[in-house]
Design brief:
The complex is a heterodimer of chains A (about 250) and B (about 80). With about 250 residues, chain A is mainly α. Helix content of chain A is about 85%, strand content about 0%. In chain A, helix 1 packs antiparallel against helix 5 and helix 7 crosses helix 8. The longest helix of chain A is centred in the first third of the chain and has 36 residues. The radius of gyration of chain A is 20 Å and the shape is globular. With about 80 residues, chain B is mostly helical. Chain B has a domain of about 50 residues. Chain B is about 75% helix and about 0% strand. Chain B has four helices and no strands. In chain B, helix 2 packs antiparallel against helix 3. The longest helix of chain B is centred in the middle third of the chain and has 24 residues. Chain B starts with a helix and ends with a helix. Classes of the chains: A mainly alpha (about 250), B mainly alpha (about 80).
């Protein structure tokens, strides 16, 4: 691959990997709670059913992407990436500044376990079904996000395979570490990942939106590096500013 | 909540967390589209407006969400904060 192509492919793999890592960790926490409380049969059945649902979704959406004109696809994906990336970046900035509480995987695990134990006391006979549906929902909902991330990151310039590889690597990594330690993955620096992914997705968003509008970026693919630097700088400055506002409010 | 509704909420929630940032981003893209198509402005103007507008939307969105308010009406929903 040429250096300029790598400049686009490497961030696509990295963005898909990091974004998927966050989503897979969240799904894993709930599946682990289901498996621990109600046994692994409903947890695994629910998860496999959800993966089959996601595979069907990909098979349905994939061929449709080929029929959309490239400029329209780039514009649509660029706008979705901008919305998605800036949402993550804003949330990560507010969490880093202490305005919004950090996401806690152990708290999420405990909440899901408590919910299942409450259900167990009320209706023991249907608990396997409820546990299976809980695992299905967790994997399906977080998985839908992963599918959109892969499409958004990869579809603009034929990078679906590199983006898919990034997502699959995240899935394999979380599964391997999760099976090994058998606990919620609370030490994943989720907010830093969200900040980094927000910066990358927003940069991709500006790039694809511009391409879709017919803007001929100076330096072509390498313009992405400028966008990454700009979003990183504004993100860090906004974190400092939000922290200052929060401190002033607390005082 | 039924699964299709939950999936739909999740998909919409993917893109619209902070309503101000979402609306401002769409507005920036709309203005740049008009600049690019109707006025045939040079790349530095359209590209710079797109990048600058998005960075501005982000900065203002963060400032709006961080500032203290009297009524409990956060721009990021409670569900968003929990996730």
């Amino acid at each position: 691959m040429e250096p300029a192509s790598w400049a686009v492919a490497a961030p696509a793999i990295g963005a898909a990997f990091a974004a998927s890592l966050v989503e897979v960790v969240e799904a894993f926490t709930i599946v682990l709670a289901v498996g621990t409380i109600q046994g692994w049969r409903p947890a695994i059945l629910g998860s496999i059913s959800a993966l089959a649902f996601l595979a069907a979704l990909i098979l349905a959406l994939g061929p449709m992407l080929d029929r959309v004109p490239l400029h329209l696809l780039q514009l649509a994906i660029g706008i979705l990436l901008l919305l998605f990336g800036m949402r993550w970046l804003c949330k990560a900035i507010l969490r880093a500044a202490g305005v919004v509480a950090l996401h806690d995987e152990i708290a999420a695990f405990d909440a899901e376990a408590r919910h299942l134990q409450d259900q167990a006391q009320r209706r023991q006979d249907r608990l396997d079904w409820i546990a299976g549906v809980t695992a299905f929902k967790a994997v399906a909902l977080e998985g839908v996000e992963v599918v959109f991330i892969v499409i958004a990151v990869g579809a603009g310039r034929g990078l679906l395979w590199p983006a898919s590889l990034g997502a699959i690597a995240a899935f394999v990594l979380v599964l391997a570490v999760g099976v090994a330690i058998h606990r919620p993955l609370a030490r994943v620096p989720e907010n830093s990942l969200k900040f980094g992914v927000g910066v990358m997705l927003s940069s991709f968003g500006v790039f694809w939106t511009g391409e879709g509008l017919g803007i001929d970026w100076p330096g072509h693919d390498l313009a992405l590096l400028t966008f990454v630097a700009a979003f990183l700088l504004v993100g860090l400055l906004a974190t400092l500013q939000a922290r200052r506002i929060a401190a002033r409010h607390a005082a | 909540m039924s699964l299709p509704r939950a999936v739909m909420r999740e998909v919409v929630g993917l893109f619209v967390g902070d309503q101000f940032i979402a609306a401002a981003t769409i507005a920036v893209v709309g203005i740049v589209a008009i600049l690019a198509k109707a006025t045939a402005a040079p790349t530095m103007v359209t590209g710079g407006s797109l990048l600058g507008g998005c960075l501005g939307a982000l900065a203002v969105g963060v400032w709006r969400a961080a500032r203290p308010r009297k009524s409990p009406s956060p721009s990021i929903s409670n569900r968003e904060k929990e996730r």
